[in-house]
Write a structure and sequence with these properties.
146 residues; alpha+beta; 2,3-Dihydroxybiphenyl 1,2-Dioxygenase, domain 1; nine-stranded mixed sheet; 5 helices; 34% strand; metal ion binding
Length: 146
């Protein structure tokens, strides 16, 4: 079986106040932070709530070995908002880099893992979030960079 949860790319932490959290990390010497880079348009974009997805705020920092993403969901209904309301701030998902997003998504589906959100671009880049919280303790994501 091909291992697609092998190369950790990022850890995503959901917070109430993005600016306050980034300020704290900067006081610890963690930075520089940048806005999550929105790449080109998706040819496929299946998320539970498009407006909520569009309204989320993200900041990222590249460390030597992994990226940290901080996410502040809007008040609109989304999986991230529900996580924050039910569990408080914390790690929402782990993102893994893959060579082929489509193949990784298909392999996960073949294992019976449900997809909760997905996006694909014409160049083959994109993401897929999996319904793994109950079994893995966290949402798992695969992503392919452009």
């Amino acid at each position: 079986m091909k291992q697609f949860f092998k190369t950790l790319h990022h850890v995503c932490i959901v917070v109430h106040d993005l600016d306050k959290t980034v300020d704290y990390y900067e006081q610890l010497g963690v930075g520089p932070w940048f806005d999550y880079p929105k790449a080109g348009p998706y040819v496929e974009f299946d998320v539970p709530n498009r407006a909520a997805s569009d309204a989320m705020r993200y900041k990222c920092v590249d460390l030597d070995n992994v990226q940290i993403q901080i996410c502040q969901p809007s008040e609109l209904d989304s999986p991230q908002r529900r996580f924050l309301d039910q569990h408080g701030e914390g790690v929402y998902h782990l993102g893994f880099e893959v060579a082929d997003r489509d193949a990784a998504e298909a392999a996960a589906r073949a294992l019976g893992i449900g997809v909760t959100a997905r996006g694909a671009r014409a160049d083959g880049s994109g993401f897929a979030y999996f319904d793994t919280r109950a079994q893995a303790g966290v949402v798992l994501e695969v992503r392919k960079s452009a």
